[in-house]
Amino acid sequence: MFYSKLLSPGAVMLVWFSIGCAATKAASSACPPAPEELAQFGTVYRACAVDRKAAPPSTSQMMNYEPTQACGRVELDVVVDTAGQPIPESAKVVRSNDPGLLQAVLASLGSMHYIPARKDGQPVQQLVRIGQGYVVTVTPAALAGARRRPPRSGPPC
């Protein structure tokens, strides 16, 4: 999902959000169990072990965050419970290059809601990877007289 936010005349923040299976490096087709440290939250499945994966609703999640750099990215693994609520205590940071964005994402976990994963027709807990990031894009008009070059195109940081 993408959305944009006007920061100032000529500067736009493009924000992306994604959800996916917590990455596994399994060489075989077998689905490995969720990490042992998640046992404190009950039975947790990876996306490869459920019939229907947990999914975010079609609405965008807005956060109160102003960027402090040209590009920011956060990825974390979190357990989504049988009611579709992320369990903030289960969050594990995979990578982050912007501490402010990381704190904003962690603070917003309680307000996020997903369609719960299902296995054998029953809702189950699933480990998901949440990714959020932004790229600040500066228009040519905003660059007039500036010595900076516009951000290069390509994938977000």
What does this structure look like?
The protein has 157 residues and is mostly beta strands. The chain contains two helices and seven strands, in the order βββββαββα. It has helices at 99-108, 140-143; strands at 2-8, 11-21, 44-45, 71-80, 92-96, 117-119, 122-138. Strands 1, 2, 3, 4, 5, 6 and 7 form a seven-stranded mixed sheet that branches. The longest helix has 10 residues, at 99-108.
In short:
9% of the residues lie in helices and 35% in strands. The protein is mainly beta and 157 residues long.
Radius of gyration: 18 Å
Coarse shape: elongated
Number of helices: 2
Percent strand equals 35-45%
Number of strands: 7
Instruction: Describe the sheet with the most strands.
Output: 7 strands, mixed
Helix content: under 10%
**First CA to last CA: what distance?**
17 Å
- Helix and strand content put the structural class at mainly beta
Helix and strand succession? EEEEEHEEH
Mean pLDDT: 77
Low-confidence stretches: 23-28, 141-155
